[in-house]
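Troubleshooting entry. Yesterday's outputs looked truncated, so today I'm pasting the complete records for two proteins to confirm everything comes through intact. If either block looks cut off, that's the bug. Protein one:
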Amino acid sequence: MFISSGDCKTVSKEIEAVLSDLDYRVDRKKLTDNMVAYTYVMPVTVEIHSR
């Protein structure tokens, strides 16, 4: 689940959609009962140039 915050809600929603489509996999063989879930912050800068 991705949550973005920014001045433009349309751009924030698009960033969420792009990040949600990233292909990442969990190796189930490496999972243990002692693992803890973490939250990561990934700063993203978007530049919009006029046409």
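Protein two, checking that the full record survives here as well:
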Amino acid sequence: MKSTSLSLIAGAVALAAVTGFAAVTAPDGGGTTTAKAATRLPVERSSLLCPAPGLSDLAETEYTSFTPAAKSGAAAGPAGTAELLSTAVKGVAKDTAKGKDKKTGKADPDKPVVLLKEPGKPATAEVSGADAPALVGTATGRLAPGWTAQQTTTVEAGDSRGLLGVGCTVPDTDFWFPAASTAKSREDYVHLTNPDDTAAVADIELYGPEGPLKSEVGEDITVPARSGIRVLISTLTNKAEGDVTVHVTTRSGRVGAVVRTADDKSGSDWLAASTEPAGTLVLPGIPADATSVRLVAFAPGEDDADLTVKLLGKTGAISPAGHEELHVKSQMTAGVDLKALTRGEPGSLLLTPQEGKATPVVAALRVVRGKGDKQEVGYIPATGPVGAQATAADNRAKGSVLSLTAPGAAGAVKVTASAGSKGGTPVSKTYKVAAGTTLAVIPPVPAGLKGTYALTVETQSGGPVHAARTLTVPMDGIPMFTVQTLPDDRGTVEVPAAEQDLSVLDD
């Protein structure tokens, strides 16, 4: 093996530990290529982006940053850092949150808004007002594997009223958002955040019930370096549509993307991206008292999709009356009102292909709780399984519900409540989820809890389990809530074994 080949292999192994790249083979001494057995190692670096939280002067935002404690017996790595920093935007809110200049009210991009110091204990910060900036962050060392951050905003009144929650996103180049809207009653924004030192260029495509919505201003959108921008979706088209799928891609660079929705009657919340297009989708965590559930799906390929719709409840799967099937035409957004389909029991939605034809789709649910002027809205995108480990960072002493669903075989998960941000002792509990059901539980709370805490879910056995956490904060008779799904945190990656046989080194 040439020394240059060894250098390439070593570099590939280092890259895998940082980025998740793992498909590497090594040539043997005879010049042939031999695949080496891979092992899983913790990532060494993680990135997260949080959108600018407010459009209201009444907005109160709490950030929670958390990395799960290392498993017993795991090798200790370097201490590392985990910081969420303000982006370089103008007009930030005047407040005294950490990372602010008290005299000018402007964010100091060199001071962390949230600084996480140790795994297993959340770090929090609060920001007030409409002009608080987006945040960019990086975690290294022991703080990188499984690092997550939650942004939770409370707006008590006005068009943006609601409890708005979103998990800060990993930068990427491709995002799908079913369940957005350009209707006159809605005010939906796409928030784009650029973590890098060079500008990114993004495109925003819109698809309605009849196909693509023409737009001359959705292309070549510049997102300045280490900055966040927001784009009002209704300004990208002259058509008002109730159900719209938003597709965000980048021509250069990478961004974090999320949609903020606001409705005249039901308030506002964040709409996170659906999992990548797939033939089978799971949408977990529909609250038991949902008064309205609307399913929105989109088929991005050239083929139509015919889906079977199942509600996975406490005792098994049922078909929503009159909506057992859903036909999604290619490049067209399909929406169906499932009304109060849970009927007093929590559940999850399972979409599967009919007759074995797995046409990739994306999907999301728009969920309403309450009635009349006491309504509140939340969104549940299709999501991947918990996998090895997943975390919901912001939980309080009351108001959290954890939904676990096993769409195939039965599964078991371990749920760990972390130490509190201001004190408390971790506690764990194992839950078994029967095949084809949804189990909704009030999760464990740390003993002696002070502040907020994180919930980490780990797969123990059985088939894949999908999860979502609902956080409810009632206010003035309104059941304000937000739902965050819990896909695998990708805290570990497969790294190929590299053999060094110095006897075959040559020039």
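Both blocks look complete. Sanity check on protein two: The helical segments are 3-19.
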